[in-house]
Amino acid sequence: MLELTPARIVAELDRYIVGQGAAKRAVAVALRSRWRWMQLPDDVRRDIMPRNILMVGPTGVGKTEITRRLADLIGAPFVKVEATKYTEVGYYGRDVETIIRDLVETALSIIRVRHRRTVEVEAQRRVEERLINLLRRAERSTFDESGTLDDRPLLDQLRAGELENRHVELEAGPRTAPVQVMSAIGSSSLDLELQRMLEQFNQPRSRSRRLTVAAARSVLLDEEIDALTDRESLQEEALRLAENSGVVFLDEIDKVCAPESGTHGPDVSRQGVQRDLLPIVEGTTVQTRYGSLKTDYILFIAAGAFHTSRPSDLMPELQGRFPIRVELSDLTRDDFMRILTEPRTSLVSQYQTLMRVEGIDLQFQSDSIEALADIAWQVNQSTQNIGARRLHTIMERLLEDISFEAPERSGETIMIDAAFVRSRLESIAGHEDLSRFIL
User: Model pTM greater than 0.70?
Assistant: First the structure.
């Protein structure tokens, strides 16, 4: 998907996110630049670094969603972290290298899914053979004494699903997750060796279990996929994927800004977080459970509202690592109308789908959409501006009674018009302390 043109990337993002054209163009160009970089010879590529992005804008306008959809679009490993979590325990905070280790784990999950698709057909064939052998063993006494057996009818029955409730004896061990060792304090070479040793000791012993064919098929499929998997190769591939295509979203970066006047207290912690983040963004080598990873070519996208600070309050060295700056604008009344109806999974369609489960057909008239947008915009202007998230709280308030009564109203068609919206929300919208009712 890296071959997508910037225009195509923006068009794909438009399917899910309303407005913010400048931010979409910036990430589309950054993604295309990543594709150009991958076409270069190795000796040239090593000297060209990704152009990281700093998004500036209020909450709820699409910063996170743009980045998340971008990563989904290209199948890249994606990690979102809040910069503030690294100040929770003071100056030292959490180990910022856990960001990269989490990215590698995400990359490994992607690689495993891809690998599963490539070997699943062969694994299914092996599972059928094993199930036939298990069924023959379970019913040996019913077969011809000569030991010969026509497998074809049995295979046909198996594929037709006629044997799903038959029982077989299966030698299998419980699937258990590996034990994490000292993950919160780093990952030195000694820690990694100890991790590997404990994983070997933690291998479950096989035992005999009596399962239905349906349950056995799932267990056997996992076993056969594991047998067709070279774990070391997958881990190496995951490291390469995270290293060359990883996307890290650093949210609330403005919360770790330390104004020039701040020389003690919380500002010391904030400066410490910036100093810890700098090597990761600048380019360093991080030790993970699966090997070392260079962060030089990971795409970092930072975001913040910057209500009480400015990007210039960041450390100069950190500022320089985010050369692309884009500003996201506040949502307008028209934006709210579009958010309610245009995206592929618009808010209106979500509620209609949920109510359809109860047998209720919700019909939103065009004037109801206008009324909802008016109230959402008015509430955001009168109280704290939380962007598109305001629509969720308003919709919940609007449909509270319908949701409560839904089981008893199955089969009804309910029309939502402007009068209905105002009857439920106008008294709230007119109250001077709207947050008491909406949030």
Answer: yes
pLDDT in tens, 310-350: 888 888 888 888 888 888 877 778 888 888 888 777 888 88
Q: Where are the alpha helices (DSSP H) in 40-186?
A: 42-45, 63-74, 98-138, 151-159
User: Hey, where are the domains in the chain?
Assistant: 6-105+238-327, 119-237, 333-433
Hey, what are 38's tokens? 């991958």
Burial class (CB in 10 A: 0-12, 13-18, 19+), 400: exposed
Q: What is the DSSP letter of 95?
A: -
| Max Cα distance, the chain (Å) | 93
In DSSP terms, 169 is beta-bridged to 210
Q: Hunting for tokens 């884009």 — which residue is that?
A: 326
The fold of the 6-105+238-327 domain, in CATH, is Rossmann fold (3.40.50)
State the Cα–Cα distance between residues 330 and 311, nearest whole angstrom: 18
* Helix/strand/coil for 190: helix
Q: Which amino acid is at 285?
A: T
| Spatial distance between the Cα atoms of 383 and 436, rounded to a whole number of angstroms | 10
- Quote the tokens at residue 187: 């990952």
Per-residue pLDDT tens over the stretch 38-82: 888 878 877 787 788 888 887 777 788 888 888 888 788 988 888
DSSP 398: H
Residue of 303, 298, 297, 299 lying closest to 325 (CA atoms): 303
> What class has domain 333-433?
mainly alpha
Token pair 């109250």 in the structure block, residue: 431
Q: How far is the C-alpha of 59 from the C-alpha of 68, rounded, in Å?
A: 15
Query: Given the DSSP bridges, would you call strands 291-294 and 207-212 parallel, antiparallel or unpaired?
Result: unpaired
> Checking phi first, is residue 320 left (phi over 0); if not, alpha (psi -120 to 50) or beta?
alpha
Q: What's at 267, amino acid-wise?
A: D
Closest CA to 166 of 147, 142, 149, 148: 142
